[in-house]
Structure formats: structure tokens, C-alpha cells
Amino acid sequence: MSDMQYVSGPRSDCRNAVPSSSTRKRGHSEVADDSDEGKQSKKRKTGESVVKLEDVHCFVFYPDVVYGHKCLGTLFTASSIRGRGTTVFSVVRNTKRMALRMAWQDDVTLMAEQDAVMKRLKDQGSQLHSNVIVPFMTEKVERGSKMCTTLGAIRGFLDAQIEELGVENRVLTISASDLKRPVKYFWGVHDFVRGLCGALLGHEYLTKIGILHRDISENNIVLGLRPEGERGYLIDLDMAILQNADEPTQPQPQSIKLWTRLSSLSTLKSHTLPERALRTGTFPYISYNVLLDGRHTQFDDVESFLYVLLLFFFSYAGPLSASELCKADEAGFVQSIGSGRSSHTRNWPKKYGWVDGETEAIAAQKYSAITISHGVRRIIKSTEFVDCLENNWPEELHDPICDLIHASFTIFHRSTAANRSRTEVSHADFVSMLDEWLNLYSHLEDKFSNCPFNQPEAFPISRAGLQGFDINIP
């Protein structure tokens, strides 16, 4: 850890606490004169021993109680200074492990939409789908008798001033749900694919009851704790709205070229809100239709699952070891403070990071990968993808991974709408293809799984379901 040693531990007095990473406390004399020379001089005058900065321990604390729950540590913290400032804790209440989530939700005026979504889910009662994780407790945090808002609680504006400002005013909310396994603790490729299938089934259910999720990403998919039972779930309904499913479009003889579409949209860009402001979702996973300001439908969410699948292989160098996975499970999957990111995580190559850059350029890249003949072959044969496989995944899995990516992009290529303005893959088609891949390569599951628990019976081998996808890469 170079020059500093990190010491982590619980910290009390934390009803509203969030993790901090403060260094040593500074004395009054140090505040008065911040220069190194000034600090050294004043310490000599007072007889204090001079301590070099590199010898000072760096203390990092996490709360031991969060809103009345015993805290095991932090599951997730938002990396961006923009957005909702989401923090998720692993907590225990009455011996039950839970995920407790704090977030500054959308503007007060938009909370009614989220309340309507939760009511729709509550009305389902026992009919609620097992692959959707719905919070069993959601509260708006209050201080005294007033809600905690960004303008009121943080910036200290008076109510009358807030009404006159006309700017976004977010509300602090907390919610509790069952603790599941984050994707980064996957046991193997097959385990992740099973989890993706489960999340797709959960999304299909939401679509059928008139709820559109609108924020499909790796962080909003979680995996089962044990091999038996459900293997994947969809979480986080913060961006969800009530919206009925779209029907697939009817075939039309004329198609619209991408550059024509981009040209027409670029003339409208100056009349819209700032770039990325109107779009919903986590940017690397957003469909090309939404990136090009198209209407967000369930088809766009299903396309986002495709990008979750592709970027997964760039994100990791295989799973953690069985012993590391077992320890993570016992610890409630909390982040190890001061140790940096997990040893098996990798940076995305710039070409496929889809985080920075021009929105239209990213949309064009996704569009060509899906709609142009052999677009997916360009991905599989790209230097970035080849290096990813060679450096991060066992050689025996290279062909199965290529087959998985190729078959997935193929069904999207065949599903594009009449004018190719969007993809129109159904949940059933995507899940069926993933199931067939699991069947086809079931003989590799145990060999390349680091699951620390007993494995369920493997699928029988079957090649029938993938025959129509031409998945062998020459």
C-alpha cells in the first residue's frame, strides 16, 4: 500500500452516516499554517516529535449502525459526483442479512411516478415474480417533520426560497431488500449467464404488468446466493415508469441509412436539453435507439441486456477463487476498505467503454455491430476482444464465449425494426438462446466454476437450439 497503511473498522453514531475516508486529524497549529515548513517549525517549538507524512496511518471508517440496522460494510457506492449518490450497505436485522440502500431520488415532483410503480407492484401481492427484487421497506428520510432534500437539508434554503429557485430538488430515501450476490462475485461464465436469464425473466414480468425498468446495467442485476433456487434477479426500480409494452413493427420495404438518421437528428440537438440529460439508463448499456433520442420501450431494455453480456467479458479476468468467494459470502459481499478494487476486475478498452465520447459516435458503433452484416464478427475478431480472451479467460472457453456473443448479436440483427430504428428482440427469444448455449456447453460448467457450494445437476448436452445461428467463427 506504498507509503500509507490503511486501518479499517466500524464507527458508531451513524444514523445518517455514510462511509468516510478521512486521514489523520489535524491540530490547530497545522490549520493556521499549512506549509510543511510551518508545521515542522511549530512542532519543534512545542517540543512535539516530528512525524513524516509517510509514517502516518490513514484511518478509514464505516458505520456500525445505519438507520437502526447493524452494518457489515458497504456493498456499493456511486462513483460519479453526478446523479443520486447511491450507497448500499450490507446490514443485519434480527439475524437476517439485507441490502440497505440510500439514494437522493429524483425531483420531488417526479416522486409520484415512482410511488405509482411501487403501488402497481404491491397490488400484485403473492403474484410477484421471483426474479424481481422489490424493497420490503421504502421511506423518505425526514429531519424533524420535514423531508431531507438537497436544497433544504444540504444547501439550507428556506421553503420560500426553494419554491422560487425552480431547480432540481432531490429527496433522500432509504429502502431495504433481500441481500443477493453482486455480479462481480460470479462463480463462472455459466453462473453469470444463468443470472442474466433470471434477470430477463424478471424484466419480462415487469413488462407484462405495465412497468418499464429503463435502467438495465450490470449493477442492477444480482445473482443467487446458492446453486439451488433462482440464479438471477432484477433490482433497482428508481427509473421505472408505468408504460405498456410496444408491439413489434410490421415489415416495410424501405430502410433508412444510419447517416441519414444521424443527420436529421443532429439538426434537432440544439433545441433539446443538454446531452444525456433526457436519456434514462446507465450510459454504456443504453440502446442505440435511445442514444439517438428515440422513445424508450421494453425493446431498448432488452438490448441493454446484450451490452451487459458483452461488457461482462471485458470487465473480469475470470472469477475469484473459491476461497475468496466463500469469504465474500460470509462477509455479506462488503467492499474491502483500503484494498482498492477486486483483483479480477479489468478496465474496459476505450473502443468498447462507451462511457466517454460523442453520443452519436457511440450510437453508430452499436448500430453497425447489430444491423450491418457481420458486424458482430468485427467485434469478435477485434484486437481488443482477442486480447481480452487471451489475457483473461481460459483457452478452452474462448470458442464458447465467441459463440455466445455471436449468437446473441445474431438474434438482435434479425430482429431490427422495419427501418432499423430499433431492435425488437423478445424476452423469450433471448432467454431461449441463452438456455441453449447453457445446454450446448454444460460439460464445461463444473470444470470452470469456482462455486464454493454444492453444484446442481448439469444440463444435458444439446446442439439443436443453436443450429440456426451460424455461430462457428472461421
UniProtKB/TrEMBL annotation:
<dbReference type="GO" id="GO:0004672">
    <property type="term" value="F:protein kinase activity"/>
</dbReference>
<protein>
    <recommendedName>
        <fullName>Protein kinase domain-containing protein</fullName>
    </recommendedName>
</protein>
<dbReference type="InterPro" id="IPR011009">
    <property type="entry name" value="Kinase-like_dom_sf"/>
</dbReference>
<dbReference type="Pfam" id="PF17667">
    <property type="entry name" value="Pkinase_fungal"/>
</dbReference>
<dbReference type="InterPro" id="IPR000719">
    <property type="entry name" value="Prot_kinase_dom"/>
</dbReference>
<feature type="region of interest" description="Disordered">
    <location>
        <begin position="1"/>
        <end position="47"/>
    </location>
</feature>
<dbReference type="InterPro" id="IPR040976">
    <property type="entry name" value="Pkinase_fungal"/>
</dbReference>
<dbReference type="InterPro" id="IPR008266">
    <property type="entry name" value="Tyr_kinase_AS"/>
</dbReference>
<dbReference type="GO" id="GO:0005524">
    <property type="term" value="F:ATP binding"/>
</dbReference>
<feature type="domain" description="Protein kinase">
    <location>
        <begin position="61"/>
        <end position="409"/>
    </location>
</feature>
